[in-house]
Amino acid sequence: MERLRATGETKALSDSTPFAERVLDLVERIPPGKVMSYGDVAEYLSEGGPRQVGRVMSTWGGGVPWWRVVHSDGTPPPGHESRCLSHWREEGTPLRGERADMRHARWHGDHQ
């Protein structure tokens, strides 16, 4: 199985790390209308940090609902703002202007 990069290039999933697999698996479980910050993902997995999660998402995240992973202030990944807003509106994600409303949209994982 392959996942597409956000840039449209293809990177074989077999080139990914176990950490990347865990990140992508978690992102696939974020429900429509909810988001997690890069730091939330790292904290949930108890490994890595926001930058490491961002690196995974920029390399392999195109095949998962990447718009559900945001900066801690609710802003989307740079360069993807309009596509994020479109997805968020379609899914009914709580917004504050053009960012996810982290108070209402944040997903805390399966144990929430």
UniProtKB/TrEMBL annotation:
InterPro entries: ATL_DNA_repair (IPR052520), MethylDNA_cys_MeTrfase_DNA-bd (IPR014048), MethylDNA_cys_MeTrfase_DNAb (IPR036217), WH-like_DNA-bd_sf (IPR036388)
The keyword Transport appears for this protein: no
Record has DNA damage as a keyword: yes
Gene3D superfamilies xrefs: Winged helix-like DNA-binding domain superfamily/Winged helix DNA-binding domain
Domain Methylated-DNA-[protein]-cysteine S-methyltransferase DNA binding, residue spans: 18-76
Keyword annotations of the record: DNA damage
Pfam families assigned to the protein according to its UniProt record, in alphabetical order: DNA_binding_1
Coiled-coil region: none
Protein name (Swiss-Prot/TrEMBL): Methylated-DNA-[protein]-cysteine S-methyltransferase DNA binding domain-containing protein
Organism: Sphaerisporangium flaviroseum
